[in-house]
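It is worth pausing here to work through a concrete case rather than discussing structure prediction in the abstract. The textbook approach is simple: state the sequence, then state the predicted structure, then interpret. We follow exactly that order.
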Amino acid sequence: MILGPNSGVLRGSILYLIECQTDYILDCLRCLGRRNKDAMDLSAIKMEDYKSWLDAESKKVSKRSAECPEWFFSGGKASWMRWSQWPADLVTFWWRTRQCNEEDYRYA
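Step two, the predicted structure:
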């Protein structure tokens, strides 16, 4: 999914995020082709690792963003989770989406 949760930006280029996401999707399709599989699913352990990282980064951003409108936060300003915006810089987004790590996925 392109431009899903936590993929919006406040500073920077949304086009750059779309390019990164598209490159990642194409790399995932290459992984599927190499394995001659039709589907892939991120392992539960990797998903939990990512969610923990995202939670930690979102908490840092929300502490710095008290002036942000409520709609940036899941559950209003009292909640720390920013559901719509990427919580880190664009270099971090590129780094996390630069290639598909085949071992992180289960295939069918």
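Step three, interpretation. Strands lie at 40-42, 105-107. The chain has one domain: 14-101.
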